[in-house]
Amino acid sequence: MLTRLSRFGPAIPRLLSNAPTRFVSQSKPSGAAGSVSVTELHPAAENAGHGEVSPYVKNPDYHGFSSDPVVDEWNMRVGFFLGVSVALVIGGTFIHYLPDHGMRQWARREAERVILQREKEGLPLMSENYYDPNKIVLTRAGEE
Fold first, then answer.
1. Please, are residues 95 and 85 in contact by the beta-carbon 8 Å criterion?
2. CA distance 95 to 82
3. How far apart are CA 46 and CA 68, in angstroms?
4. Is the pLDDT of residue 84 over 70?
5. Are 113 and 99 in contact (CB under 8 A)?
6. Which of 57, 63, 123, 126 could hold 118 in an S-S bridge, CB 3.0 to 4.6 Å?
7. 143-to-60, 94, 95, 135, 136 alpha-carbon distances in Å
8. Pick from 78, 54, 84: which is nearest to 62 by CA?
């Protein structure tokens, strides 16, 4: 990864030193596309003495909740506090109380119960046969 970045090393100072420029086409426009000026698309707004003022001009700390600065700040604080609380506290509690994934805890409890039962009965903890050989029905060689 570092070797790839080293290729751009000589170009980085050149990119940072040049001011951003706007590239304008110098070719003559063709009549096929038909150019339209911006004034033809949108009529100019008539100035009636006052225009719509951005909420950011009225209140530089505008958060988008209300036009009143005090209500806007309180709504922002309450919204973020509840959002973080719900995500971290309630989400963490939900994940903590999820049921046993893969039933690992149940399997351990069941194994401990079986071990205690077999020790009481004097049986070995594990037998050499997975199934009880007396319950297996084998076919005879002549009945196939």
1. no
2. 18
3. 28
4. yes
5. no
6. 123
7. 93, 59, 58, 19, 16
8. 54
C-beta atoms surrounding 58 within 10 Å: 10
**Across residues 24-33, what is the average pLDDT?**
64
Query: What's the CA gap between 63 and 44, in Å, rounded?
Result: 30
Q: For 113-124, how does the pLDDT look when each residue is reduced to its tens digit (9 = 90+)?
A: 999 999 999 999
Q: Which residues contact 61 (CB under 8 A, 6 or more apart)?
A: 69, 72, 73
Q: Nearest Cα to 78, choosing from 94, 63, 93?
A: 63
SS3 41: helix
Entry pTM? 0.33
As a whole number, mean pLDDT of residues 21-27 equals 66
| pLDDT value for 135 | 93
**Max Cα-Cα span within the chain:** 109
Amino acid code (one letter) for 94: F
Residue 73: partners with Cβ closer than 8 Å, 6 or more residues away: 61, 63
